[in-house]
Amino acid sequence: MGKLDGRIAIVTGAAQGIGNGSARVLAKHGATVILVDFAESVEAAAEEIKAQGYKADWRRVDVSKLEDVQAMVDDVVAKYGRVDILHNNAGVNRRVKFEDIDPKTRDFIFGVNIIGVWNMAKAVYPYMIKQQYGRIINTSSVTGTRVVDEGQTTYSMTKGAVSALTRALAYEAGPHGITVNAVLPGWVRTPKVEQVCRDNRPDDPESAMRDMAAFIPLKRLCRIEEIGDLVAFLASDEATYITGTEMVIDGGSTLPETFDILHA
User: Fold this and answer.
1) What is the pTM of this model?
2) The one catalytic residue among 54, 125, 127, 155
3) What pLDDT does 260 receive?
């Protein structure tokens, strides 16, 4: 028996990275998981989960387009009868200094990170109200809400918006038996992070990983499945009285006031 047996879950940005890890963990706990992504590889990601004996399906959707999102959610409900869990995870980033970012790039990031999250929540919300039950978990970030680096003005703005939406929607959704929470990852070992390390140190990308981990109190990057474990907890009956929260999962990376150069 899994703690999510019988639940229908939608995970966006699920072709790889955090979303894929979340989908695999939710499926392991018994949920039927619909992996949603714009990438063609989302089908293969779902098939891999099914090959392991779990329940998975997939939809290729651009979350920035409300009509497409609504049609996808309607189709999922028509096929499975309900939607219980939404992990609103799809997100993009372009690290560009504020004076150099153009409106097209800004709007692309806003479209996925803010509008996409709003679209998905808007589409599932009436179904969750009807069944008087729902779990919405949004992927925000420590970036923008706790810490920042150069070139992150636009991305930070979107993650601040996700956190704000989480709190506001939690307030409205509570009387309907719907909880809304956010997970705030720090450095996670995703394919994108691995690619950054390869680009910067093609001869020894693992050394870049080690240097990144050196300033994290737990001395390693987060595994994608560990984000999934937190999402599964928030989606389960173990978290029935938790709503409107931001749960940081960063290995302590946001704890230092300064980098301790003398002891590095």
Assistant:
1) 0.95
2) 155
3) 62
